[in-house]
Specification:
It comes from Microbacterium algeriense. Residues 39-123 form the Methyltransferase type domain. The protein has 254 residues and is an alpha/beta fold. The protein has a domain at 8-134 and 154-191 and 243-251: 3-Layer(aba) Sandwich (Rossmann fold), CATH 3.40.50. It is 41% helix and 22% strand. The chain has 11 helices and 7 strands. Strands 3-2-1-4-5-7-6 form a 7-stranded mixed β-sheet. α4 links the parallel β1 and β2. The longest helix has 18 residues, at 217-234. The radius of gyration is 18 Å and the shape is globular.
Length: 254
């Protein structure tokens, strides 16, 4: 799956704001904290863990990538962040009231095993999200304009993969032992700062960053020019409005 090593700073400056777009839907699904505990798995730069804590939850967070944890420790020292990640979490069964994994199950090698692990450590709800329309469509357009071959991501084996739709996500979660996942699709527009978005590319974040890193110098110049052309064409008041969709799953105890 994707290599996130060393991208913490670039991710925090760019896509972390996009990934926070699911927070309102997750908060509505879970309601008021009422003193409950919450574990944020794959917490990245700690942005959402801090938001959950500010809303009144008793929060723990875990993240396996050192550069992400470094950003979290620096910018959000109030977040209790440890070095851990799926598919094996260092928590006992039923350790917390709620487990949240925001855009994590779409990046692991074994989604069903990982989802089962989320279920194991929660004595209450499990909330998880995946992309149904990710930023990859933008970078495919940029690559085509630049005349470079788009990066073909590594696919999971057929017995591990699942359909990236709300229904497909729900089926995968049921396969993993989550009893009654309710999945809804959230749509929103992210008004991206083009300069920050380009920083994600130069910082090696996600498929676009991996593609750019592998390009020759002339290809990089064409890719940058193509991105600037797209930003000029689509930009509104200095921002790049980009439509995104995510499946938000909530599984409550029966």
């Amino acid at each position: 799956m994707k290599d996130w090593a060393g991208v913490g700073e670039a991710y925090s400056a760019s896509y972390a704001a996009l990934c926070a777009g699911t927070l309102p839907a997750m908060q509505r699904a879970l309601g008021a904290p009422h003193g409950r505990s919450l574990l944020d798995v794959g917490a990245g730069d700690g942005r959402l863990a801090a938001a959950w804590a500010d809303a009144g939850w008793r929060v723990q967070a875990c993240e396996p990538e050192a550069s992400m944890r470094a950003v979290a420790h620096r910018d959000r020292p109030q977040v209790d962040m440890i070095d851990a990640g799926l598919p094996d979490l260092p928590f006992p069964d039923g350790a917390v009231d709620v487990v949240v994994a925001n855009f994590v199950l779409n990046h692991v090698d074994s989604p069903r095993r990982s989802a089962a692990e989320l279920r194991r450590v929660s004595r209450g709800a499990v909330v998880a999200t995946i992309w149904t329309l990710s930023p990859s469509w933008l970078w495919a357009d940029v690559a085509e304009r630049a005349g470079v071959a788009p990066l073909v991501g590594v696919k999971l084996p057929a017995d591990e993969d699942f359909e990236r739709t709300p229904d497909g996500f729900a089926r995968m979660l049921r396969d993993a032992g989550l009893e009654r996942p309710v999945v809804a699709e959230r749509r929103w527009t992210w008004n991206a700062d083009p300069n920050r978005l380009w920083r994600s590319v130069e910082g090696g974040v996600a498929d676009a960053g991996a593609l750019y890193t592998a390009l020759a110098s002339d290809e990089r110049r064409r890719f940058r020019a193509a991105f600037e052309a797209v930003a000029d064409e689509r930009g509104v008041d200095g921002f790049l409005p980009l439509e995104h969709r995510a499946a938000v799953a909530v599984n409550l105890l029966p």
